Amino acid sequence: MLAGKVAIVAGYGDVGKGCAQALKAYGARVLISEIDPICALQAAMEGYEVTTMEEAVKTARIYVTTTGCTSIVRGEHFEEMLDDSIVCNIGHFNCEIDVDYLNKNAKSKDLVQPQVHRYTMKSGRHIIVLAEGRLVNLGCAHGHPSFVMSNSFTNQVLAQIDLWTNPKQSICVKVLSKKVCVVSYHLCLSVCLSLVMAYLMCSQLLSFLFFLKLF
Ligand SMILES: NC(=O)c1ccc[n+]([C@@H]2O[C@H](COP(=O)([O-])OP(=O)(O)OC[C@H]3O[C@@H](n4cnc5c(N)ncnc54)[C@H](O)[C@@H]3O)[C@@H](O)[C@H]2O)c1
Q: Domain 6-142+197-212, what fold?
């Protein structure tokens, strides 16, 4: 049961926003950690508490990493977590959660059910890791429908066609050494619709946690 639990979502980009919304819909109190001030402000304006992982470990029971960045949940966090905290990653790379630390430092590791490991720490506390820190929606659920991938790739092709055929409507700005182009308004609207699909995809993660009935 997620209602009443404290969950932290690391990263408030597209994936983080969907995960936070889904967790909130199930009644969890959601914390956000972010390094980008704009995304952090967006989270605060949506009513989420923005905090650090170091602060979150005192209250959170559920950890979801969505940053695509390395070393988000590390050894020092595992050592402070509450008993039977659930940790998972939905970002692309399996470097967000330091599973190696658990494998090297935990007293024991038990397979509770496929893709669900329960580590016993030297302190006697337990940590539950889903899909060994790999993409949880693919490891523990059925992934997202092929329609979502098809939608995403179609968006990219549409954006390229738009940039090629409407170069004057697209706004191009130079950010540091990278050139960033913003596609025209009507295309932005269709891309926004596709983001709704991404939100739906993240809800699979929550369905999985719900069925685990670990609490
Ligand atoms: N599981 C899936 O099906 C699926 C689907 C789409 C994308 N992804 C993956 O999810 C990840 C995120 O994708 P996205 O589109 O949301 O990217 P994004 O760039 O929109 O969001 C990532 C956010 O994480 C923040 N971040 C980076 N480092 C951080 C840190 N150390 N602490 C806190 N926040 C940090 C960034 O500021 C950014 O706001 C990527 O790895 C992407 O490949 C997975």
A: Rossmann fold (3.40.50)
pLDDT at position 200 is 59
The DSSP code sequence of 62-131 is: EEEE-SS-S-SB-HHHHHHPPTTEEEEE-SSSTTSB-HHHHHHH-SEEEEEETTEEEEE-TTS-EEEEEG
Least trusted range by pLDDT, from 34-43, 92-101, 163-172: 163-172
Pocket test for ligand 1, best of 9, 15, 19, 152 (most atoms within 8 A of CB): 15
The structure's pTM equals 0.81
Domain positions in the chain: 6-142+197-212, 146-190
The set of protein residues with a Cβ atom below 6 angstroms from ligand 1 is 10-16, 33-36, 39, 66-69, 72, 90-92, 135, 137, 144, 201
Looking at residue 132, the DSSP 8-state letter turns out to be G
On the question of pLDDT at 215 being above 50, the answer is no
**Contact (CB, 8 A) for 90 and 205:** yes
pLDDT recorded at residue 188: 64
